[in-house]
Amino acid sequence: MSETKYGIIFRSSDDVDSGKDPYVEKFEKAGINCQVISVLNFEFINLTDLKSKLSKSELYSGIIFSSPRCVKAVSMAADDITKWENHRIFVVGEKTGKLVETDLGLRTEGGSSGNAKALAEYILKQDINKPLLLPCGNLSRETLSKTLNDGGIKFDRIVVYTTITNPNVESNIKEVFDKLKIRYILYFSPSAVNVTFPIFTKLGLDLDLIKWAAIGPTTESELLKHSVQVTIVAESPTPEHFAAALERSL
């Protein structure tokens, strides 16, 4: 009988819910049992300033939503989101796009681009004559804003949430590694990579047999800085694309 394979999925707290995690399901179909560990928590900030900007929709060509947290911030701050119905609404990833459509009732575009750089390149091909409102987190990468800036697209960037490390992440990692022989680790963000690798070192964990996985190229780049071989990278941040990448690695 073959040995049971175990893995860890490092996600943010707002990605962990009571329902069945679709990424856990994809691992299970490949014969891998996964534990989900919440790495990051979030606090919303500058919502009054965001509210003011949202009330002046006539000054903008549209909004860029780079994460589900940005959608939630706008949902919390907006008095009348219908002012944006005739604006361009760009999103990074299909999950963020679905949230915008269900929570805000706005039509979106660019979701299939899958990552910030690809979305920025898509935006550069559009006819944009006013700035784009860009809510973001305090640890957001400069990829999107730099590409837009280099391409001559004006944007109004506002930080709407801060990222905080889950205080239980170290004890949760220790507990899982003490009980199970972990062979797969999937990351959803560069921030989670930066939080967990110092913990691995502190705990003296043996990582030689780990197969490393990233939800996209930005997270992959952060993993590579830690001198590990990333064998599983989803072409787009969806369970289906991840499953395809996982299958190729087996």
TrEMBL record:
Tetrapyrrole biosynthesis uroporphyrinogen III synthase domain span: 22-242
Listed SUPFAM superfamilies: HemD-like (SSF69618)
UniProt key word Repeat: no
Catalysis: reaction(s): hydroxymethylbilane = uroporphyrinogen III + H2O
Coiled-coil annotated spans: none
Alphabetized GO MF terms: uroporphyrinogen-III synthase activity
Annotated metabolic or biological route of this protein: Porphyrin-containing compound metabolism; protoporphyrin-IX biosynthesis; coproporphyrinogen-III from 5-aminolevulinate: step 3/4
Organism domain of life: Eukaryota
The enzyme's E.C. designation: 4.2.1.75
Top class in the EC scheme: lyase
Recorded GO CC terms: cytosol
Swiss-Prot/TrEMBL keywords: Heme biosynthesis, Lyase, Porphyrin biosynthesis
Any one of the GO BP annotations: protoporphyrinogen IX biosynthetic process
Family: Belongs to the uroporphyrinogen-III synthase family.
Biological role: Catalyzes cyclization of the linear tetrapyrrole, hydroxymethylbilane, to the macrocyclic uroporphyrinogen III, the branch point for the various sub-pathways leading to the wide diversity of porphyrins. Porphyrins act as cofactors for a multitude of enzymes that perform a variety of processes within the cell such as methionine synthesis (vitamin B12) or oxygen transport (heme).
Protein name listed in UniProt: Uroporphyrinogen-III synthase
Organism whose genome encodes this protein: Rhodnius prolixus
